[in-house]
Structure formats: structure tokens, C-alpha cells
Design brief:
The protein contains 10 helices and 14 strands. It is α/β, with parallel strands linked by helices. Strands 6-7-8-3-9-10 form a 6-stranded mixed β-sheet, with helices on both faces. Strands 2-1-4-5 form a 4-stranded antiparallel β-sheet, covered by helices on one side. Strands 12-13-11-14 form a 4-stranded antiparallel β-sheet, covered by helices on one side.
């Protein structure tokens, strides 16, 4: 059985009384696109920096491709492609000069391979980096991460500043990596990026991993949105049913989110005179709000 691409075992990082990551346990198998989702300040970048051994955990252990993140960091870096969320480059170099420099560090990556990526991502390589926009620097950074065909991609906010056409090309490249059996770890707070790219999603909140599930499972099972139109107004309709969140009643129209006990909701609706009902699978936006806002609400907080 293949070793996980990424393995966190009870990893915590704290600076005095400030906690960056708390008791993180995570296993990412090889050959998947894993989305690491959370708002700014949730612990995403701290997690990635520990994976890269830029900072070290206060507790626990991390293995990347079966290697220890601390003792085997050089070997790990040879097998991964990394894009930082706050990328810094030598502004005096042109895009081409920077990529040539990275290629030499990587071990003379063929320029033909780099040129193909330059064309796919529509990079400007003749100008100095000091004069490039955020989006054009981002494209150069992506080429640098991809050029050596790594076994694992670790990308922090990879589509930041990219126009929609280049975002679509990036998604194609990630799909090609998955088809080769390679792994991508994509950290983002852009919901559409995760929804359109990833197989599995991990939610991190205030340094704690809230949940990890296949994206399809999350969308189909974890949350559904219901809108029912009743024959007569029912101000107390559906109150007190476990698993119902954000309950609202406006005249004859009842709306709510359901995270569990879907059968209980249907049983309650069957007792009412329902003229019309619409049940939708949740988008990742809905799931995000459930994990980061709705999870603070108890069933008793529902309102009508």
C-alpha cells in the first residue's frame, strides 16, 4: 500500500499563548487533489510552512511522501513543487532569468519543458519582475513550481491575480497531474477554486481541522437547502426539529438548511399542506458558511 503523500500526527504550533495550529491529524493519499479551505488567519499558511520545514511544529510529526519533514527536508524539496501565498522574487531579474535560475537549482530542467508551461500560462518573461503585475508574477511562480514534474504540488492561493482564462488552464494542468497519479495540496479561501478543482476538502478554523470529506459527499449529504410553499401560513412550521438551521418563515414560504435528520424534516412536511417544495444540494459557499458561521448556532437559535 502506498504511503500517504502527506501525514500529520497530532501536530500543534504555538508561539507562547498564541496558537497557530492545534492537534492537527490529517492523511492525504497519493493521487488526489486536496483542498485546504479556511478564511484568512485560520492556520492554512502555518500548516504549509510546517510541511516545508520553514517553521517547525511545537508538537507532533509530519511526513511528506513518507519522509520526515524535519530530518529529510532536502530530499522532500527535490520532489515537490511549491508556490507561496506571499511569493518573493528578485525584482532585478526578468521572468526568463528567474526561471533559468530555478531550473539550474532543480538540476537543468529542459528549457523546452519550461517553454511549454510559459505558453500554456501566457507568461511575460522578457520584462523585469519589478514591472510585472501580481497576476503575471503568479504565473511565473506557477511555472517554477511545475517545471520539474514534481510528485507533490503544494500551492498556497495559486490562482490569486489570474484572469479567468488562465485559471481554466491551471485547472487543466492540475487535472493532468491527477491523471498521472500525482498529488496536489491546494490551500485557498476561494470557494469556486476548490469546488472546481479538488477531490477532497479539509476545513480549518481557528487552527483546528473541522472536517475532511470527499467533495461529492459534502455536497450531497452534509447540507441541503429546502424551500417549501404551504397552503396556509404556519409561523411555527418546522421549529424544534434537530438538524435544521437558518429556519425562516415568510408568509406561506418556509426556507431552511438541513445538515442531518433529513427524514425528520420530510415527516414534518408531510403533516403540512405543502403546495410546492424545492430541495437543492449545497454549494461549497453554503458549506463554508455552515462550518464558519452556522456551526456557531444551536438549533434553538433558529428564527422565523
Amino acid at each position: 500500500m502506498a504511503v500517504p503523500a502527506i501525514q500529520f500526527n497530532h501536530v500543534s504550533k504555538h508561539w507562547g499563548s498564541s496558537v497557530g495550529v492545534s492537534d492537527l491529524n490529517l492523511s492525504v493519499p497519493q493521487g488526489v487533489v486536496f483542498g485546504f479551505l479556511g478564511p484568512n488567519g485560520a492556520g492554512k499558511t502555518t500548516t504549509i510552512r510546517m510541511m516545508m520545514d520553514f517553521i517547525r511544529s511545537s508538537e507532533g510529526s509530519i511526513k511528506i511522501l513518507g519522509l520526515d519533514s524535519k530530518t529529510d527536508s532536502v530530499a522532500i524539496h527535490n520532489r515537490i513543487g511549491y508556490l507561496s501565498g506571499d511569493m518573493e522574487m528578485d525584482r532585478r531579474l526578468t521572468g526568463k532569468q528567474y526561471l533559468e535560475y530555478v531550473a539550474n537549482l532543480r538540476g537543468n530542467v529542459p528549457w523546452a519543458t519550461i517553454q511549454k508551461l510559459i505558453e500554456r500560462l501566457d507568461c511575460q518573461t522578457d520584462k523585469k519582475l519589478a514591472y510585472l503585475s501580481r497576476g503575471n508574477k503568479q504565473k511565473i511562480g506557477l511555472v517554477a513550481a511545475l517545471m520539474h514534474n514534481p510528485d507533490l504540488l503544494i500551492l498556497d492561493e495559486p490562482t490569486s491575480g489570474l484572469d479567468p482564462l488562465i485559471q481554466q488552464e491551471f485547472k487543466k494542468i492540475i487535472a493532468e497531474y491527477r491523471a498521472k497519479g500525482k498529488t496536489s495540496f491546494i490551500s485557498s479561501h476561494v470557494l469556486s477554486e476548490i469546488q472546481e478543482t479538488c477531490d477532497t476538502v479539509g476545513f480549518i478554523r481557528e487552527g483546528k481541522l473541522v472536517d475532511v470529506q470527499p467533495l461529492k459527499s459534502l455536497q450531497q449529504k452534509s447540507l441541503r437547502k429546502v424551500r417549501a410553499t404551504l397552503s396556509k401560513p404556519k409561523p411555527t412550521a418546522l421549529r424544534g426539529i434537530k438538524g435544521i438551521h437558518d429556519l425562516k418563515v415568510s408568509g406561506r414560504v418556509v426556507t431552511c438548511d438541513v445538515t442531518e435528520n433529513f427524514e425528520g424534516l420530510l415527516t414534518a412536511l408531510a403533516k403540512l399542506q405543502v403546495k410546492d417544495i424545492v430541495i437543492e444540494e449545497a454549494s461549497l459557499d453554503d458549506l463554508f458558511m455552515h462550518y464558519y458561521v452556522g456551526s456557531n448556532e444551536s438549533d434553538g437559535d433558529n428564527h422565523a
